[in-house]
Amino acid sequence: MEPRVRPRRPSPMRTFRRDLAIRVCAIVAVSAVLSGGCSLFNDEAVATWDLTKDQTPDSDTTAFTVEVTRLGCNSGETGTVNDPDIEMTDTQVVITFTVSPGEPSSATCQGNNAVSYDVELPEALGERELVDGGCASTEATSTAPCQPSGVRYTP
Question: Which pTM was predicted?
Answer without folding.
Answer: 0.69
